[in-house]
Amino acid sequence: MKVKKFVAATMPEAMKKIRSNLGSEAVILQSREIKDGGFLGLFKKRKIEVVAALDPKPHKQRQKTGPYTDLTSKHSYIHNNDISEQRVIKEIKHLKHMLENQASTQDVKFTLDYQTVYSYLLDQEVDQTIAETIVATVADRHAANNIAPTTIQIVTDVQTEIENYLEQISFQGITYDQQTIHFVGPTGVGKTTTLAKLAARSMLQDRKQVAFVTTDTYRIAAIEQLKTYARILDVPIEVAYSIEDYKRALKKFSDVDLIFVDTAGRNYRHEEHVNQLTKQVQSNPDVKIYLVLSLTTKANDITDIYKQFSHLPIQEVIFTKIDETYQYGSMLNLASAHNVGIAYITNGQDVPDDIIKPSAKLISEYLMSDYYA
Description:
The structure is a single chain. This protein has about 375 residues and is α/β, with parallel strands linked by helices. The chain has three domains: about 1-55; about 85-165; about 180-355, Rossmann fold, CATH 3.40.50. It has twelve helices and eleven strands. The strands form two sheets. An eight-stranded mixed β-sheet has the order 6-5-7-4-8-9-10-11, sandwiched between helices. Helix 4 (about 130-145) crosses helix 5 (about 150-165), helix 5 (about 150-165) runs antiparallel to helix 12 and helix 10 packs parallel to helix 11.
């Protein structure tokens, strides 16, 4: 592995150096802000130090940017070139699921093979009605066509049916047709880090000029975090303590391509907090709103949170912390129940790398990836 340290004035400049020296396959291992130069220890300038690496012979392993497209690939003892061995192991694990289902007190709605997949979907926190509909559709299709399916075929067809369920859902993300983008959501879901990732991508990939505004004036740490990202990315930032401050900031940044607005992560079960956010959004008609939700939150709570924000014109949601859970049903539940799009999925803390552009296929793969675990 080739490891090299880069120092630059801004993160975009550092990324250019990394790509020039190590290529597009390089991985960022560490980044931090340092002070460099100066005279006799004075007048030092802030710079970004990034440690990057390139493995000329990368090992085949699961990438952070997606799930297991091969449902058995996370088991290192399964050899990719030995199909028969994979099938034996899959069948053994399927039998284990079947025995567990036989021993459970759960209501039986299907014959054993289908019941096992149905139970798995419930374990993934898929809504019961949605799970039942998906499995029943697959079972009825097999019966109508006189198909005696294997376990693998049932799982594959269920995965395809999940994709069909998401067929009308948008996965648009940032389109640059609106200048101001608000990130809203409860506390602790990762709004600020997600904002920084998307801002960095807009700058690096799409060559856009961006600016930051934060209305989260309740936590000093939140302001400092966004100011740190602003220094690293070399973008302007304004703190808005009132709606008037917010309007002035938008006017000040009227010449940039995108204004990323970080809002307070507070308990929106309290009506006054909702009203504050509503007034802010209503003061600017040219705004796009992303609701940021953590996949580590229980499925029922995610539904409740969405309802609390549903009075806002939410274009799409962003799901965070997919790397911290093995239950992905909330993505399917929310999208299908409320016909709301999914803009992005985040899978780590690294800026700007740990963010995924989703699709119906990707979500279905996440949902079924642990069936043989």
